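Note to self: keep these together.
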Amino acid sequence: MSRSVLPAGPVLTAPLLAGLALVGGRYLHATYLRPLPWAGRGHFNDLGVLTGIYLVTDIAGRLRWLGQASRLDGLTGRLDGHDRDPAKRAVFACVRVLHLDDLTPTEALDAIEGRCADLLGIRQSMKPRRWPPATNWLSFVA
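Structure:
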């Protein structure tokens, strides 16, 4: 039995998502902000997404996970890892992605993820989950 803590965050509305589209700055390759069903997450393999920020929502459109991927097996490998957790699999319904350049430095990737957390206002509402700080975000992405 999984002991994952999956707090519910805000519903991802159009205004919240519009703000996220700018967060990647010079590293942003593409945005996939329309909800893709969790079962279709393999589509990101077809798109060649290795590096990015992903947002997972439940059936009600509430944010359940904000994370980053930067690995050889791509975003899909990261998402498949989440799918092996029964608690996550039970609530994960859709995924959205900010596709970032594969050569995005780790410091920039962390700052981008942190900036997303700040824009969504989830640092307090989704505890005990934690995200990297967005310190120097603008200097990394400008």
